[in-house]
Amino acid sequence: MPTEATTADLRVALETERDELRSRLVELGFGDDSAGLDYDANFADSSQVTAERGEAEALANTLRETLQEVEHALSKVGQGNFGTCERCENEISSARLEAMPSSRFCIDCASGR
Hints:
Elements: H1 4-28, H2 46-79, H3 94-99, H4 107-110
């Protein structure tokens, strides 16, 4: 398990990442209350609008997935089991957590060893 100080630092990093992800989703028009970007229906090149909408939705989906992983990691901090592999229940190395604080698995389980 990471030390209390390391966990506190990683919590701050996760909270910062969560806030940035939420902000990016709002900027894309995919915040809590929005259904996505609003495109001009009379735009001359509807294929371009469709492509741009598809790209924005794909990016929003990736951001949402990352946000879910970050929120899951924050819930583990709150439950006191942050830094424990969800598969083998061994400790996740500090180096891995520093590189990817939302890691659910130790390096062995993540690589399928």
